Amino acid sequence: MPKIIENVREQLLAVAKKQIGERGYANTTIRSVAGECGLAVGTVYNYFKSKDMLIASFVVEDWNRYLSELRKSDLADPRTALRTIYDTLICFSEQHNPLFSDPDAAKVFSAVFTERHKTLRSQISELILPLCGNDDAGFTAEFVAESLLSWTVAGKDFDSIFNILIKILK
Fold this sequence. Notes:
Layout: H1 8-23, H2 30-37, H3 41-47, H4 51-72, H5 78-95, H6 97-100, H7 103-128, H8 137-153, H9 158-169
């Protein structure tokens, strides 16, 4: 009789995320994740076709949770909206800093970075669009989204960038 394990996918994602934080990208393997979960390597491949898909899955799922919370937030006030988005980006980047700052991971994921960055910028600009008061609101929202992403990565303090952003939005 086959062994029935509940929440296998979630368990695999949690262990992979933990191992990335503890061991880094290069030392996290399908074999190490399977072993810690008490599963055969082949079982992991039933859920994820590669280590990179396993890792990308937990990053995307985490971002989708953050994005869902952002979409539920009251973003009518520009300062509150921009602060909420900024704080969310900081939390997300801090949560995944072991992966984002890993040079081995950067080599592997650099090929998909541009496309994923475009998607992220677009999702953020959708939240910013209602705040735009000028004739070219679509461009402005994209520009502010890109600025927030860049300044978040650069470690800029929100209060130091808010006045710049609010001028752009008008």
